[in-house]
Amino acid sequence: MKPDPLKQLIQCFQRAATSEESQAMSIADDKLYVDYADVMAKSVHIEDDDDDGGGDEGDIDQAEKEEATQALRAEQAILADRGAAIMCLMYLSSSNGEPSDMVAQTLQLGIHLLSGGNKDIQKMLIDYLQLKKDVRFFTSLAGLMNKCSVLNLEMFERQIKAEGLGMGAELAAGNHQNLNDADFTCSLFRFLQLTCEGHNLDFQNYLRTQPGHTTSVNLINSTVDYLLRLQESVMDFYWHYSSKEVIDEGGKEYFLRAIQVCSQVFNTLTESIQGPCVGNQMTLANSRLWDAINGFFFLFAHMMEKLYKNSTQLELLREFLNLQKDMIVLMLSMLEGNVLNGPIGKQMVDALVESQQCVEMILKFSDMFLKLKDLTTSQAFQDFDTNKDGWISPKEFQRAMEAQKMYSVEEITYLMMCTDVNNDGKVDYMEFTERFHNPARDIGFNLAVLLTNLKEHITNDPRLEKIIEKASSLLEYFDPFLGRIEIMGSSKRVEKIYFEIQESWLEQWSKQQIRDSKNAFLFNVLQDDGGDQGKLEAFINFCEDTIFEMQHAAEISAGEGSDVKMERAIKQRDYFLQQTSAGEQLSKTFLASYDYGLSAANALRPENLQKTVKYAANQFKTLTWMQLLIQLFKILIVLGKNVFLAIWFVIQTVFRFGFYLMTPEEDHDTSKQQPALPSPREDRFSSNREQLYEQMNAHKARDIDVFGVHVHAQDVPDIPEDPIPSDPKPTSNGTLPSEPKPSTVPPPPEDDGFLKPPGPVPSAPGSASPKSPSVYDAQSIGSQQFVAVPIESEVDPNAYYEPKIAEMSSARAKGSIMNVLARNYKTFEKTTLYLAFFINVILLFHRVNIQEPEDGENVGNGEDDDNDGEAVEAVYISGIEISYFDYTITGWMLAQTLYWISVFHAIASFALLMSFYQLKIPLITFKREKEVARRLMFAGCWITEDENEERGVLDTFMWYLDRIVISSKSFPMKYWDKFVRRKTKHKYRDQVDEETLNALLGAERAPGDTSFDYRYTCWLWLGVILTNGQFLYRVFYLMCSACGVFISPFFYAFHLIDVVLSFPMLKAILQSVTHNLQQLILTVMMTLVVVYLYTVLAFNFFRKFYVQEGEDGEEPDRKCHNMLTCFIYHFYAGVRAGGGIGDEIESPYGDELEYPRMLYDISFFFFVIVILVSIMQGLIIDAFGELRDQQESATEKLESSCFICDIGKETFDRMPRGFEIHTTKEHNFANYLFFLQHLVNKDDTEYTGQESYIREKYDNRDWEFFPVGECFVKQYEDQLLQS
């Protein structure tokens, strides 16, 4: 077996880390380890943290994010499986709490290995720590925290004085003083945060206490102690600048450093308690964290007051607001799993009361700036902008605020201090609103969540009620956007969850099509007695379908109404530039109409008409024949051009629709194509790993593999042209000179020596101090020359290699015309209905003209004599006389009107079909893909199911069709879980061999593959589109419209069926016929059997009564001398007759079979007319009544019990909050849907503990988190009633 050089190298470093303490100094200065740790860290490609929290959640592509995550896991596994993670622990333990370059680089390597919350590496680390009981690791981390510097005002002042004398460089260059080590400090706390990432409860508890160790170190308290030191140092800087009007650049730099470190410490503490970790929560609650929080509240309030007044300080203000947001998130995490009147909640209220003045200042600022948008977008304020250019003078701005009476005099004075003017002395009020409203909204929402949480968990506290009263306007503002639900937590207690509802979600939820879907779901699910699990399963399916429908509706309406309110407010300036008041607009309209009327009347005067005609005639007479031909030729060219363009537009539209109809939706934006690499970042890594994965080739020549670790050219440190110089110049300690930064180096040379590690460098001749002993000499491997040998990766490249998939949320420029049609689906639907109704009104004026043939007309024409004398019928449209106006609309006018309206109806029907395809087919496809994916993933269909099982013909056809699509490279296209096949392979790999799974599930689409996927397209059309009744109805609708244009207008009578489908009441009548359709069909079949029995009796015994005498010598009509004719006659005439078949045949009186005939007639009447026909009528009537009762029952059930918890209304009537508040706030039907959408869009590394718990349950299709039969109010009923 070939040795693994990377593993050997890491083992060498591990042995060095566990060497004697006398060699510790040598380890700290080990340049070789630092260089290789840097190479290893760069081989794990992580994305930079987004300071804004990840951007817009709605724009996250889940599939691409999953691809990047799996690529990161594979890169981390390469190092972790060879011991790199354990090596990091060893080196941190050996540091003995002394900062150095070795510790800094070890922390960076650990961050890269743990990035993304790698649970496998976390388990590997904690298993090692528990096995070795390594106390030095925790003591070293605590020592490093103690050595981390904070701001030093005294040193800062000395530095300023020294810089004035030209001597401040040495003071500013201190490594571990005055936060010059901010990056090192952030790395330390970031490493601690990542050990708990993903709410690793074991590691969270282990940071607090280490059971079984000789010494237990509480790193949580150590972190709080450092945070308190840092907060006090920042307060010193604040007092230094409190008397100054502006914070200078030097002070701003130190403030930004402190904010960076504080933010990281807050994030670390937040991650250590989320889950929740009750032990760490109580540790923080009993620590000095509240002192730090009170200090930060004071700092935030006074810095906001100071920095808002100067536009040059807005960058620093924004950072302070982000830090405040991180602190509020920490406080919310402290309340995870909060119980009614819990100790942590009470301590938090005490902290808020202690800082009440500062909290009220923050609330005042937030409320003041939140109202700016309502102020500047109001019509009354816009009237002050007389020029409609978005600029007003400060005096006008002040008068506008005073006129609105939204602010007090003190607030108006403060806002005027915050304004900036241009060279003309005017204020851009839209820019002013945007600058202050958005940050206030971010901070205000988090405060609203915190206060709402405390309000609902802490009762009978007048101090909290006073703060809530001060924040009433803030809470009222955010109430529509503050979603709250209740869940059954992991501790089997009802817990509350708070989250943000996007404004776009509320807009989509209010759309008519979403309301119709909701009503239909509620009606169906409340009638289906499938139990609680069945109801919750149906509810989750409805939520998934509705979320996709809302996302799709937002995508197709992106060009029309996707602007949020703030963007619309900014654009309102242009709107007001183009608009006038209603009175002015009417005046201009009437004036223009009057002018046009005068001009038309003047032009139509007889003398002017004569002049015009005379002038045209004279001009025509002066033209020569050549000029006349030229003018006619020009007219023909213009007409031909316009006709050609119109025809070309129609043909292009038809072919484009056909192309879009047949082509699956794929994003062809080449700028977003995924590289054929595991790297998720194309801008940093542009080549493949040839030596690491033998099946991936064509990498760039400058990419290298060092000990199995792949490094790209741009990540390689600077190497001299001669890697092993003949006369090296070592440093004083015998190590190689430090490398310059990669950003300043040219590309490395192509040299074999570049792949070798730095060898031992001889000491300079005459060196006074001998070379210090190397930590590698004792291992007898120091002189071994390692070369880069390709090794087989232990990680399957298929585990993280993913093809380019279709994006879900990106707006496509392709199909913009289709999107316009989809946005107007309801308009086309109503237009076609109204046109069909108008066409059928015109059809009422059709007449039949009967023309008698003249004598001799058919003589000699070779026709049969039987046709002689027959009348000829012709259908035509008669005119309409309007008597009141003495006007007649001729038949020709009606015929032309009918024709062109029919053409327009056909075009509208075609547009309706296209809009239905664009609007509805994606949702139908999503449902089918979800059905197939769920059956594949959870039921093992097509894997464990036998294809020889008994099924119906249609079910067998669909089974094989679905089996084809799961092996297509484009599946799934619409369903958001793009990795369902990979998950299925992982789930069933122990039951089915890998070859069978690969053959069944097929291969993934390769990146850049734009080939036509015929399997998916066939499934899409045969299994989805052409099996959908609504689509087939629209196709039939278009075909009838086309037949009405080209064959007969009477085809438009079928379009009136659309009236039944357009009105809910008429649709209910139709449902009454189809509700009991099976029983109705069986009853008709029974009627046919009974009628057939009577036919047999009539044919054998009573056929003489069915003979009707002919007229004028014609033969008699024998209805029952043929069995088939007799059966048809009985069914046609007997069932329709009120008295049965006896009313339609000859009377039996006086006949020898008189009494048998009477018995025959009476029995037919009784069994067929009285019983069977009445049964059919009763089925229809009963179905109508049943549907009405079901509707009333569903409405009554919704009004009398909660949909989520199924607790009756009478239970809440004795509670303080009542049933209405429970269903609209605590268990709101829509909020659970919005939370699922929030969960799907949010990055899983940003989940809270409760969100992680619900996501895990959701992925496993486990609905235990729904509080069925329980709610927060019922759980704490006794305490609430006492309060």
Automatic annotation (TrEMBL):
Bias (Pro residues) ranges: 739-748
GO cellular component: calcium channel complex; sarcolemma; sarcoplasmic reticulum membrane; smooth endoplasmic reticulum; Z disc
Main location: membrane
Top-level lineage group: Eukaryota
Annotated membrane topology: Multi-pass membrane protein
Recorded GO MF terms: calcium ion binding; ryanodine-sensitive calcium-release channel activity
Subcellular location(s) per record: Membrane
Keywords, sorted A to Z: Calcium, Membrane, Transmembrane, Transmembrane helix
Chain residue ranges for the region called Disordered: 716-777
Protein name (database record): EF-hand domain-containing protein
